[in-house]
Amino acid sequence: MERCVAERLRGALGPLGLEAHAFKVGWYNAVLQPAFHLPYPDDTLAFVVLSTPSMFDKALKPFVNKERLKIIRDPVDQCVSHHLSRVKEKFPDQRVDVMFDYEILPSRKPKFLAQTAAHVAGAAYYYQRKDVKLDPWGKKKIYGVCIHPKYGGWFAIRGLLLFPDLQVPFLEQPAPIDCVSTDEKRIELLEQFNFHWQDGRYRDIIEVKEKYSEEQKAYFATPPAERFRLLGLTQ
Questions:
Q1: Burial of 132 (0-12, 13-18, 19+ CB in 10 A)
Q2: Of 128, 147, 148, 116, nearest to 48 (Cα)?
Q3: In whole angstroms, what is the distance from residue 190 CA to residue 208 CA?
Q4: Geometric angle at alpha carbon 31, from 28 and 35, rounded to 5°
Q5: Which of 86, 151, 176, 226 could cross-link 125 (Cys pair, CB 3.0–4.6 Å)?
Q6: Can you tell me the distance from the alpha carbon of 135 to that of 183, in angstroms, rounded to the nearest whole number?
Q7: CB 200 within 8 A of CB 217
Q8: Percentage helix, strand, coil, to 5, in the chain?
Q9: Phi, psi of 73 (to 5 degrees)
Q10: Cα 58 from chain centroid?
């Protein structure tokens, strides 16, 4: 059952430069405090959706050209939301709940913790301070970061697709690929991400198969309010 859903998702999302990785809600809830739990039974089937470097050309630009007049908020968020809503149509007999990375609850907490979801689904390894044996940071706050085995840091976690009516008790959990395996490299990664994230060097901590084009880098380096102009949109 999970395979059949996964194949249908791959068929729909792959051509858009999006990846979907299956997980059970229980894997996610098991590593988080109750305040962050997803309100579904443990065996519920879910997928975390990532955008790869090719999403910019395969999904965003065509979407902008077609929906030009309807784009009123962040074009990437709107593009992903459009395509994930269309994915729901491919499962007319199923209830499909969608959560987006930018959504927050009334309590101001995010609806889901994107990097934890990517890690438990085996999609990308979430490197955190606890993964470093000799921690050099003392009292500093150090945020963790996900690294994809193929794209390094050149990807983004966009949303979750949840199938409340599909229970998958026998789904096996894949371990994420630990591609930054030495302490030195992990320290370098977390230093770059926390203190020099603007220059994007952390994204290249491993050798990557594909990264953002110059046009895409320029787009994401531009303050959100000015991105409309880059895409030829007026606000």
A1: middle
A2: 116
A3: 18
A4: 85
A5: 176
A6: 9
A7: yes
A8: 40, 15, 40
A9: -120, -155
A10: 17
Query: CA distances (Å), 182 to each of 81, 144, 175, 205, in order?
Result: 37, 16, 17, 12
Give me the residues paired with residue 19 across strands. 50
Phi first, then psi, for residue 193 (nearest 5°) are -65, -40
pLDDT of 235: 54
Mean pLDDT of the chain: 95
Q: What tokens appear for 149 in the block?
A: 């085995």
Tokens of 130: 């606890």
Region label for 17, one of left (φ > 0), alpha (ψ between -120 and 50) or beta (otherwise): left
Q: Which amino acid is at 27?
A: W
pLDDT in tens, 16-61: 999 999 999 999 999 999 999 999 999 999 999 999 999 999 999 9
Query: Of 219, 189, 193, 217, whose CA–CA distance to 205 is shortest?
Result: 189
Residue 144 CB neighbour total at 10 angstroms: 18
155-176 tens-digit pLDDT: 999 999 999 999 999 999 999 9
